[in-house]
Amino acid sequence: MAFDFDLIVIGAGSGGVRAARISAGHGARVAVIEESRAGGTCVIRGCVPKKLLMYGSAFSADAEDSAGYGWQVDVQGHDWSALISAKDAELDRLEGIYKSLLANAGAELIEGRGTVTGPHSVDVNGKTITAERILVATGGWPQIPDVPGLREHAITSNEALDLPACPESIVIYGAGYIALEFASIFNGFGVDTHVVYRADLPLRGFDADIRTELAVALADRGITLHAGCTISEVSEDSGSKRVVLSDGATIVVDQVMAATGRVPNTAGLGLEEVGVALGDRGEVRVNAASQSSVSSIYAVGDVTDRVNLTPVAIAEGHAFADSAYGGRPRQVTHENIPSAVFTQPPIGSVGLDEDMARKTHGDVDVFVSKFRAMKNTISGRPEKTLMKLIVDRATDRVVGAHMIGPDSGEIMQGIGVAIVAGATKADFDATIGIHPSAAEEFVTMRTPRAD
């Protein structure tokens, strides 16, 4: 059968663009369909704009801390619209780069919504195009819980990045990394920030010691945490939002943000109609080669709901392209993936948390160091840095590393290389530390914590 293309990619986000570029580089004829903007979630409405806002919000704490170093800083306020304009200009620049990357690789970008109509066919803009393979890379989308008034009155992370004015107060529903990063952002801009979540600690899925320290740090920075609560109702109140909590408390704020998770973006793509098996959350079920139940249809990134991180989507897209068109079949491992949470203070993590390490390996040694970062000693900020190594006692391999404190994300990237390479605690001990730095604590911890 003659096809219009060798590969049709639906979604021009990080995973889809990487798969398209590499496939085209291997000689495939590639079309990429995108209904919004090239760059996808990460570049347009996720990692990049969120971190730009994080950088902007962090200057308020830096100004406070500078007094301890002798600076006399008079902060006159913040121009929110100027920041949003600068952010938008950067996103426009990055979108242009993504389009250029596709064009330079020889892939054709088609603007419109793609709907899968068969194992080898996609409808876009009323026209059917065909390919030997179809790759779904449509990412995820914020979900809003079914709470009275929440859908009508809440924003999500999408809208939070484009607010015309900075609110004076906000309730954020949820305590995952998106919720907490935005809580840090708004708090840094002086917004009265409340975080409401069902669990006893924020950031479910991370190491318990890190979660505990984060709760203390967020509260110390002025964020009000409502642990063990849910939102019962949201309503209008003279132009504000009236939020009723499950414990009976009522909070009146300018904005409410729903950040209780994201779902795979598969609605209306026609996947089930052509036989693609989806999971309970709408995710495309794939095997280790990213192949769906329909042999010619593949999926990578958040739409598969495996590990929902941009670098993972990029790795999966690259592996697909090398396997399908490069003559180098390979798969992505989803173990020991480093990650960072850009709260204030930030978190870095790689490998197993303590509970999972004990379940997986049995006997483990846990090394913990807790201290005030050097910057905080003179500034007077009471915030503590916590660093943690988890070691399989039988093999001496380091199976988990976790940190909260300044530069956590930057530090954890290097630690991730060591853990992926199978480094032992003896290897860490034999490494000379960089002094004076917080990072050196990872190679100077000698005594395990008593169980």
Molecular structure report:
The chain is of the alpha/beta class and 451 residues long. It has three domains: 5-142 and 263-325, FAD/NAD(P)-binding domain (3-Layer(bba) Sandwich); 150-260, 3-Layer(bba) Sandwich (FAD/NAD(P)-binding domain); 339-443, FAD/NAD-linked reductase, C-terminal dimerisation domain (Enolase-like, domain 1, 2-Layer Sandwich). The chain is 32% helix and 25% strand. The protein contains 13 helices and 22 strands. Strands 1, 2, 3, 4, 5, 6 and 17 form a seven-stranded mixed sheet that branches. A five-stranded parallel sheet has the order 8-15-9-10-11. The chain has a five-stranded antiparallel sheet with strand order 18-19-22-21-20, sandwiched between helices. Strand 13 and strand 14 (250-253) form a beta hairpin. Helix 1 packs parallel to helix 9 (310-325), helix 3 packs antiparallel against helix 4 and helix 3 (47-66) crosses helix 7 (177-188). The longest helix has 26 residues, at 80-105. The mean pLDDT is 97.
CATH class category name of the largest domain: Alpha Beta
- According to DSSP, the number of beta strands is 22
CATH homologous superfamily assignment of the largest domain: FAD/NAD(P)-binding domain
Distance between the termini: 65 Å
Proportion of beta-strand residues: 15-25%
List low-confidence stretches: none
CA radius of gyration is 23 Å
CATH topology type of the largest domain = FAD/NAD(P)-binding domain
For the record, the CATH architecture of the largest domain stands as 3-Layer(bba) Sandwich
The helix content is 25-40%
The total tally of domains equals 3
Which structural category do the helix and sheet elements fall into? alpha/beta
Count of discrete alpha- or pi-helical segments spanning 4 or more residues: 13
How does the major sheet shape up?
A: 7 strands, mixed
Integer average pLDDT? 97
Note the overall shape. globular
